[in-house]
Amino acid sequence: MNSLAAPGEPVTVHAPAGTITGRRHRQVRRFLGIPYAQPPTGARRFAAPVARGRFREPYDASRHGPTAQRVPLFATTTVPEPSVPGDDVLNLGVVAPPADDDRGPFPVMVWIHGGGFLAGSPASPWYDGRSFARDGVVCVTVGYRLGVDGFAVLDDVPTNLGLRDLLLALDWVRENIAAFGGDPDRVTVAGQSAGGAAVLALLSSPAGRGRFQRAVSMSGGFFEPRAVRAFLGRLGERLGVPATRAGFGTRGVADLQRAVLDQRDEGGDDALVLGPFVGDDILPVPVAEGLAVHGHDVPLLLGATGDEFDSGPGPVHGARAAGTRRTDTLFRAACPRAAASRRAARAGTWLYSFEWPSPVLGGAAHCVDIPYFFDVLDAGGIAEALGTEPPRELATSMHADLVAFLHGEGPDWARAIGVLGDPAREYGRSGAPLVADTTGAFDPVVRPLPEAAGTC
């Protein structure tokens, strides 16, 4: 059994999708790589996802399934993101408490990984849901199509295929999660980076209505790429094929992913080049506008790290004071905008800010809050990103706050409405109060961020 297989003894559930066999280890059940849709190959490539039929034979869910990622976003990534070969990339994993745990049915967290909508892997050890299972939550990690295959804008291809994949996965959860001890009426959709942006997109979409009851967006944003058709036209020229379904269909997924990354890097623009498309049935209006209309009954927790992509050696205070950081424009500015859009919502919006500076990365960098929220400081790759002594009490606090939210509790700090002075829960800054007046930190117009609101 390889490193991507679950340890422990076999355990079986009987779900509407069929009989599924996973592993039980240390009071945690893992069912990995369960297909929720047909493989997006052949005629199904560049087409809307098709639900998987009921398994005729017991399905072996003892190891992670194939990943849509073929080429990592960078040579070295903060989050360990293994690529798993195979075509059945539209699969999900379920990590749940043991069947004899009488605390159920349990709330469910559906986790959407990041990676700029170009890469990322649900098989990361940082996304293992064992601590959630320990604390009475069923954790589901979802794979979805990436890059050109998931977010191309072409005349003969349905738009937002990656989001359509996620919506179908949520349907699978609603229909099957009770067999794993989960409560289909208490589903939280959560994600980080591109996953956090996907959460906001789904929350703003008329198609998301009724599919989840709570939402968590970590370092998300309103990532709505522009000039996508022009980018794809240049990509077709680069590959010597028409920028059409037929043209791109002659190239393998790995070739397309590698070409997209090369073209993006050569252009000197490391921002998103593919992502959620605005103007179809999934996202008829921009996300900020959609949030003002949809999801008013869905509580939302969202935030960002203090430095995101602006961490590292050098004078961070000056960049913060100047208000010129990508952290502010790409990530932190989305927090008050979302709160302002949802001001009329019946359900609340709450903000947080992660301020613990990694001694390895030189700041409160992008992704370093994930293992704290998941409470997996013993996972692979932690020392390389967080150092040898990450504060365990911070993981205990952050994980407890998230678990309480998943269980239906309202955070114990005031709601945000998108104005100066909105309160936010600060994590990890030495001497910081439980709830800080973050005037400037989440200013809708990204005013200079006072040093007291988050220095490194």
Characterization of the model:
It contains 14 helices and 13 strands. Strands 1, 2, 3, 4, 5, 6, 7, 8, 9, 10, 11, 12 and 13 form a 13-stranded mixed sheet that branches. 26% of the residues lie in helices and 17% in strands. It starts with 8 loop residues before the first strand and ends in a 19-residue tail after the last strand. The chain is globular. It is an alpha/beta fold and 456 residues long. It has one domain: Alpha/Beta hydrolase fold, catalytic domain (Rossmann fold). A hairpin with a 2-residue loop joins strand 1 and strand 2 (18-25). The model is unreliable at 315-319 and 432-456 (pLDDT under 50).
User: What is the CATH class?
Assistant: Alpha Beta
| Rounded radius of gyration (Å) | 21 Å
CATH topology term:
Rossmann fold
Which class best fits the helix and strand makeup?
Answer: alpha/beta
The end-to-end distance, rounded to whole angstroms, is 43 Å
Average pLDDT confidence is: 89
Overall tally of domains: 1
Number of strands: 13
Largest sheet: 13 strands, mixed
Poorly predicted tracts of residues: 315-319, 432-456
Q: How much helix is in the residues?
A: 25-40%
Identify the CATH homologous superfamily: Alpha/Beta hydrolase fold, catalytic domain
Tell me, what's the shape? globular
CATH architecture: 3-Layer(aba) Sandwich
> Secondary-structure element order, as H and E?
EEEEEEHEHHEHEHHHHEHHHEHHHEE
